[in-house]
Amino acid sequence: MRPVNFDLDVMRSFVTGVELGSFAKAAQKLARSTSAISAQLKKLEAQAGSPLFKKAGRKLALTDTGEVLLNYSKRLLSLNDETITAVSELKLKGWVRLGFRKTWAVSCRQCLDDSPEPTPMFESRHVLHVMQIC
C-alpha cells in the first residue's frame, strides 16, 4: 500500500472552513474559488478514506474522522508555521573585519549610507588607528 502524504494547503482550507463555519468564507479568506475548496475537500476525504462531514439538520458536522483530522491538521499547520518563522528569522552572525586606508574607508561608508536598500544585517564600527613608522 502506498503511503498517504496529506497536503498542508488542503489541510489549511479544511481547518479554515471549519473554523469559519463556511467553506465559501474560507475560499474568500484563502483567495480561492469555492469549487477549488470543494475539490480539496474531496481529495482530503479520499486520502482519509472516510467522509469528514455528516448532516446535522441543515448544517454539516464533523464525523469522528473529521474531528481527528481537524486536530492533527491544526497541529501540523502550527508546526509548519513555526518552522517558517524559525527559518526566516535566521540571520548571518559573526564579524568580518576589513582594513582600509582612511580615504577609501570614508568612500565605502558613504556608498553604504547612500544605498536605497536598507542593510539591517550590516553594522559598521569605525576605528581609526594611525601608526607612524620612522
What's the layout of helices and strands?
Layout: H1 8-20, H2 23-29, H3 34-48, E1 53-56, E2 59-62, H4 64-88, H5 102-114
Antiparallel strand pairs: 1-2
Structurally, how many domains make up the residues? 1
CATH topology: Arc Repressor Mutant, subunit A
Radius of gyration, in Å, reads: 27 Å
Q: What is the β-strand count?
A: 2
Largest sheet: 2 strands, antiparallel
β-sheet strand percentage? 5-15%
What is the tally of helical segments?
Answer: 5
Give the strand line-up of the largest sheet. Answer: 1-2
**Structural class by secondary-structure content:** mainly alpha
The level 1 CATH classification is Mainly Alpha
Described by the principal axes of the CA atoms, the overall outline is: elongated
Give the N-to-C terminal Cα separation: 83 Å
Mean pLDDT over the residues: 83
Helix proportion of residues, in percent? 40-55%
| Level-2 CATH architecture | Orthogonal Bundle
The name of the CATH superfamily reads: Winged helix-like DNA-binding domain superfamily/Winged helix DNA-binding domain
- Note the run of SSEs as H and E: HHHEEHH
Protein name: Transcriptional regulator
Domain HTH lysR-type: 6-63
GO molecular function, one term: transcription cis-regulatory region binding
Organism: Pseudomonas amygdali pv. tabaci (Pseudomonas syringae pv. tabaci)
